[in-house]
Amino acid sequence: MTTQTFSVEIPADPGPLKQLGTAFARIGAMCLVELQKLRHDRTELITRAVQPTLWLLVFGQVFTRIHAIPTGNTPYLDFLAPGILAQSALFIAIFYGIQIIWERDSGVLSKLMVTPTPRVALVAAKAFASGIRAVVQALAVMVVAALLGVHLNIEPLHFLGVVAALVLGSACFCCLSITIAGLVLSRDRLMGIGQAITMPLFFASNALYPVQLMPGWLQVINHINPLSYEVEALRGLLVGTPARLGLDFGVLAVAAAIMISVAAALLPRLARG
Amino acid sequence: MSNVTYLPAVRCTELRQQFGDTVAVDGVDLEVSPGEVFGLLGPNGAGKTTTIRMITTLLNAPPGAISVFGVDVARRRTAVRRLIGYVPQQLSADSTLTGRENVSLFARLYDVPRRDRARRVEEVLDEVDLADVADRSAKTYSGGMVRRLELAQALVSAPRLLVLDEPTVGLDPVARDGVWARIEEIKETTGMTVLVTTHLMQEADQRCDRIALMHRGQIRALGTPAELRDSIGPDATLDDVFRAYTGDRLAENAGTMRDVRAARRTARRVS
After folding, report:
1. Residue A1 and residue B33: Cβ atoms within 8 Å?
2. What are the angstrom distances between the C-alpha of B187 and each of A29, B43, B184?
């Protein structure tokens, strides 16, 4: 065997500040990729807008006419629109686990995990990338809502708040999906579980009706459901209904941070598959 | 950054990995010299991919069991990852992005400085002969082009160790030669080390400086292709060496259903 001396530069271990910078750089890289994918395939934007449009067009308009759900001075369609925005973001995020299982099977996940990216940064990047997709999708739904006569407040500060709520909510549910993927390890099982939890999350939130109309047990679930805080923030910002924005954003940020940590802990198990 | 002289490119010492009752890697001792093309050969389930996954930090290794250019894989994962470029067995380029976008993503993930990024991406696309089609969607690429694109992704950070897991599986001979020609050209100019797994004996014979033959988690033979052939007989081929050390009997637990499915999926995508 021939041996030879060989000089190679060994990179220094990054400090905490450098690691934070790395995490932000990775989030930026993944968000950019998400936008590039959307640019190449705009049909997904349209197909994904069909369901929220139907909710607004059919469910929203019918329930507005029959006045079945008391929403005070706010027209029901206006009340409903932020809930449908959140629902649309939830549906995108909750199936990210399927994408990550596909990435595992196609070797993409291994390749990403061999890059100098901490696991938490990798999951956070995926999570916020799902948020970017949700925001783009939400813009399409907002256009539909505006066409149906919903009065949305899109002042810059409010709009930034809407973006933040959607990104945090999507990050949380995307990581819930990655967590489930890390537990069940199979696409088929994740599909089943994803479908099983999406509608309960939606119906056990304030997306369709005010909390006061819910039975006691449902109100308890509503209080621990991050989707409710996302809807409350979106409704407060877009329609002007009373909202506890500090609490809403606090809950969403904490929920996203917890779910990112849990999903990152399960990532090696998912990669081993 | 510190400038340090280290030997060798990869060192594995008594490397073991167990999944439940199955011992995937069983006491592997291995040294890969800097600048060489080192082949890991063996039947399905021999432990090649598990070994590669431990070297690339995808699976945990105990402290002291693996070092890459003297850096302990267990203790300094991030530093090791900066030294490695990795091409997995499956076709892993993102078909929804263009060739350039695929490579740019990895330039960002490897922290190629922003001022150098566009130039480096262009350079590496040129090195793998994809500069002319860089702005086409990767889904329009042939199997050989996708493999070269993956090489570009792995090479964009100018790694010191390129790890290739079955890089030519499913490719026709022309595409296979194209991939190897690019690897050899880049190796010549950069002096990087190449660690490769393959099933193809002829490929190993032609392309590898040294070969380790794995079977049931252990290294059964190690040497240059000529040394291995000579160890069997005057007219022996590497196929004969393979049979002699691994036996003709099929291993009962060789490769899982997922391995087979992944190999079929890769073969479908490259065809």
Report:
1. yes
2. 29, 27, 5
